[in-house]
Amino acid sequence: MQQIDVLFPPSATSVEYLEPVCRQAIEWRRDFHRHPELLFDVDRTAARVADLLRSFGCDEVASGIGRSGVVAVIRGRTAPGTRTIGIRADMDALPILEATGLPYASATQGHMHACGHDGHMAILLGAVKHLTSTRAFSGTMVAIFQPAEEGGGGAKVMADDGLFERFGIEEVYALHNMPGMEVGTFALSDGIMMAASDRFDIKILGKGGHAARPHETIDPIPVANHVVNALQTVVSRGVDPIDPVVLSVTSIHAGEAYNVIPSEVVLRGTVRTLSQANRDKVESRVRVIATSIAEAFTAEAELRYFRGYPPTVNHPVQAGILGDAAARVAGDAAVQRDLAPIMGAEDFSHMLNARPGAFIFMGNGMTAPLHNPEYDFNDRSLVFGIALWVDLVTRASK
After folding, report:
1. What is the mean pLDDT of residues 353-376?
2. What is the pLDDT of residue 290?
């Protein structure tokens, strides 16, 4: 096997015993990285995960949960316990052209593991392999490999498919790597971790015509300009500044020719909120602004507003359990327990709405940011993730 340096946490709790499985996890991770798949279409990835889980000797391996999810059940052999803990890893990649130049770079043009889901899978697989070999825990661990985190809502699809009821899951946990945080550090809170993510399409309908005779048209472009400018006041003047909201218009499309005024303009954008009150308020304000401004210019506006992932909110008890596990692995000083919410979104929120649980960030080092063509998951962080899940299951399942 290729010799690759693995960093072990400089804490009182030694995890050198995980070195063999960590080296295997690096190989699994790089294989996943080379073969990225999107949304629910993760056939190769899911099959590889299921084959590995069966080779480890899991008590049960089920495929096709939530269309293409994979679930494994591992029962402990120590003192009797009835607690069943679920741990999720996401499997899908992104439609991004990779620019890392790495030996194991994506072999699929235009697809890339640019969010580290390859690492998340390798971490959970490593933990499962270790725990199936020792069974030194009570209760039951359920490993959840989820498709379609990147916009497909795979967590909700798995939940709607009976994930929690079928496998008796009582608590659920997940991690995500975070560039900009040092390897060997963790961060979480006992409440809101991430924002709700909604999106909108606004179609401004006017009357097209020759650019030399604008008086015969209803030009939708200046209408769209006024709408974009007015939307900025939703955040700056419409919501409490200590309850964060992000509203971004990210796409404007109109016309193709130099000498033609188009008949319509399409605006697209995203809204991120932390509170339900602001989520409702922003949707209402976007609708009023678009329709009222269009009417003022004798145009029309059609709005489609899509509610996406809800806020990701940790449950306090489970956040404490997860934070304690991270501290045992990396040391108290390496765990930030009062992380301020970030305005990104995570569909693990659907699982946290179904069962008590917690979500934690794990340092990826000073790498390129997530969703960037030059991003790569840091293999030196694998041991921290594997040790986290091993510790959580071993201690918290009692």
Report:
1. 97
2. 98
Nearest to 362 by CA among 99, 118, 182: 182
Show me where the domains of the chain are located: 16-194+311-396, 196-307
**Topology (CATH level 3) of domain 16-194+311-396:** Aminopeptidase (3.40.630)
- Six token digits for residue 228: 């974009």
Torsions phi, psi for 94 (to 5 deg)? -125, 155
- Per-residue confidence band for 20, with pLDDT thresholds at 50, 70 and 90: confident
pLDDT digits (tens, 9 = 90+) for 267-297: 999 999 999 999 999 999 999 999 999 999 9
C-alpha angle with apex 208: 202 to 209, nearest 5 degrees?
160
- Residue in 234, 314, 327 with CA at minimum distance from that of residue 280: 234
SS3 at position 61: strand
The pTM for the full model equals 0.92
CATH of 196-307, one of 2.40.50.140, 3.30.70.360, 2.130.10.10, 3.30.1330.10: 3.30.70.360
Percent of the chain having pLDDT more than 70? 95
Q: Shortest CA distance to 314 belongs to which of 284, 334, 293, 337?
A: 337
Helix intervals (H) in the chain: 19-34, 43-56, 117-134, 154-160, 163-167, 220-238, 276-296, 316-330, 348-354, 382-396
